[in-house]
Amino acid sequence: MLVIPCPHCGPRGEIEFSYGGQAHIARPKDPEKVSDAEWADYVFLRDNTKGVFLERWCHVHGCRRWFNVARNTVTYEILAAYDAGAKPPKLDYETQV
Predict the structure, then answer these.
(1) Region 38-47: what's the mean pLDDT?
(2) pTM of the predicted structure, to 2 decimals
(3) How far apart are the first and last CA of the chain?
(4) What pLDDT, in 10s, does the model give residues 3-31?
(5) What is the rounded distance in angstroms from the CA atom of residue 20 to the CA atom of residue 42?
(6) CB neighbour list of residue 48: distance below 8 Å, 6 or more residues apart
(7) In this structure, are residues 39 and 93 in contact, taking their beta carbons and an 8 Å threshold?
(8) Domains within the chain, CATH numbers bracketed
C-alpha cells in the first residue's frame, strides 16, 4: 500500500485518498474562443511521464482537502506533498528516474 503524506493530517494509507489526475493543468482563460480540438486536449490529454510526475490527491476520509504530490512513477516514491495552488517544489527531475 502506498503511504501518502497529507500536508494537513500527516502520513496515511492510500485507501483514504482519491486520485485526481495530473496537477497544474490550467483551464483555458476564454473557453468560448477555444477550438474543439484545443478543448479536447485540455479535457483528455495528459502527460504519461516515466519518472517524477506531479499529481492531485484528495484526502476524502480525512480533512477532505485537495493537495499535490510529486511522485516517481517508476519507484512509487513520494518526493514531496504540497498544498493545491502552491508552486511545485524544486526537485532534480533528471536524477529521479
Answers:
(1) 93
(2) 0.86
(3) 21
(4) 999 999 999 999 999 999 999 999 999 99
(5) 15
(6) none
(7) no
(8) 3-27+34-96 (3.30.2270.10)
